[in-house]
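Table S2 (continued). Query chain:
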Amino acid sequence: MTSGRQDDSLSDIQQFFYGANVFVTGATGFLGKILLYKLFASCPGINAIYILIRNKKGKTMDARLEEIFNDPVFNKASPKIRYLIKGISGDCLKPGLGLSSADRRMLVDCVNIVFHMAATVRFDEKLRTALRINVSGAYEIIKLCRNMTNLRSVVHVSTAYTQCPLKNINEKFYPMPNGTEVKRLLLMTECIPDNLFEHVTPILLGKWPNTYTFTKAVAEDVVRTFGARLPVGVFRPGIVISTYQEPVGGWIDNFYGPTGAIAGAATGIIRTLRCDPHAVANMVPVDMCVNSLIASSWDIFERQRSAGSEQDALNIPVYNFCAALENQLTWGDFTSKTTKYGLMYPTMKAIWYLCYSNTPNRIVHGLSIIFLHYLPALMFDTICLCFGRKPKLMKTYKKIHRFMAVISYFSLREWNFQVHNVQNLWSRMTKTDKELFFFDMRQLDWDLFLQQYLLGIRQYLLHDPLETIPKALVRWNRLYWLHCGLKLTIICIILYLGWRLIL
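Corresponding output:
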């Protein structure tokens, strides 16, 4: 038994959570919703789950809390979940997390387990904003945890790409990016004017490709520096995409990362993707990620409890939750498999036939963008103008290309991620816990997963129910012949022009 109560009907991890009060930041996000569902569904006996929610776009904390329960991910959850999960008004952008004195006192006195997931995941976020949320927020959480009187475990959720300038990324801490200091960075955030801060941003980032990976690397140093005497660990997931098994296969609620590219390809908008087809695509299902996250919180407590010396207690574990070496997926496999399932399950939202390719070559990719994106967009927008409609496809492509430029850094490179801590954790879990909290990436069926992923994009992001597939296949057949007709026309024009030039 680890904590809570002795009960043979509960697994080790379930006993750890029994009677616990859990505090979660970032619970309104993609990862957070699955964590809330999983804690409720698989950890009976949790006393309460407190989630930090800020007022946003005119909506109060209570209104945003209700919105969480309206999400499809909670369709199968018992109504009792509404009594277990309690909203706490706060904001990671504010000093002291924006907590009231009463809420802070309650959290300090009651909370046992903390999951800090709140972050801005926008790669093009302004550095000042990213530092305030990702770094200052982590610092405020650590300060809060240091005052908690009944704390068992704290998990700081980072990303596998905090050290992306390196080729080999081990489960350990690394020096601060570019030799900077946390306190100096935070002081700059408060003191330097916006225009000057924008000017020094490229200098501060150095080899880091964007503000997200840079600030998450800085946040890890916050945990290392200020969380040394806490039962804390750092969890680094790869590229998190849809669910594999729980609560349903294929559920997803955002267009981040490769999901936006696949959704664009499925609708016939994106025709080319710049990536290295031989590089490993480090993607992980969100439910397996959450299962590993929950197990890591238990492991952190067990490590602290069994520490043989003060030095052992000070060692902060790092967990790289990434694709297993024995069961990897390349970007070429990813595009070919998603194309296969995209053709099997077309969407009624498609404006053209699914046909896209990937290439690492900048020139070939640039030419593809000109001929497969910009020229059709120019023709479409011209037709719209002729009929008195507002042109919008060219503007859409400009946004898409900015997004594609951001993800190309990750689709053109390959990293070697050490996953010893995650695999050792899996080997030490009981059979029951392995069934309840499955996260062994070596056993992931990529074909099944990507099939569900494509169907999930169709259903949850494009809002096209599965019942329309037969009708979409009929429409897809027409788009196919239009596609073939257009290709034939272009070939004939090229041959005609070539023949005229020869003569």
